[in-house]
Amino acid sequence: MMKKSIIIVLILHSLILFGIPSGHGFGLMILLDILCVPMIFQNDLEEFFIVAGIISLTGKLLLIISFFVKDLNTKNSIVVIGLIALLISFFLIIIENSNDTMLTLLPLIFGVPFLLYLGRVLYLMNKKLV
User: What is the tens place of the pLDDT at every residue in 107-119?
Assistant: First the structure.
């Protein structure tokens, strides 16, 4: 049950639509994750979106790693750190676009299902511990 919820959280976070300032268009978080990998090796970390992409990719990798961990306490710690990383990247995108109402609303609207399922994962983790 929890694995399915984590997979859904990963998918919903990947489908968050965000706008790029200066009229450059829109993008999905999964594209940002993919595009940030070459920027790490080029040391081009000046763009705010690249930092958000690196944090997002780190969170997703941590959640995937948590599937293979057997110890429950370690697994829960990795899941919580991964979810926090996804939340930070989500809020970084919103903060970056806070000057434009439309660019702020898009990630918020597309992020609501992600936030709801994130709450579900936390609920399932708490239910398992009790």
Answer: 888 889 999 999 9
Secondary structure (3-state) at 66: helix
pLDDT digits over 26-61, tens only? 777 887 788 777 777 776 656 777 888 889 999 999
Query: What six digits make up the tokens of 18?
Result: 């965000």
SS3 call for 16: coil
Alpha-carbon dihedral of residues 70, 30, 89, 80, nearest 10 degrees? -10
pTM of the model: 0.86
Give the integer Cα–Cα distance in Å for 5 and 119: 10
Domain count, the chain: 1
Domain that holds residue 75: 2-129
Tokens of 34: 């993919």
Q: Is 23 left (phi over 0), alpha (psi -120 to 50) or beta?
A: left
- 25-28 vs 17-20, strand pairing mode: antiparallel
Calculated CA dihedral for residues 115, 75, 127, 121, nearest 10 degrees: 10
| Gap between the Cα atoms of 108 and 115, Å rounded | 10
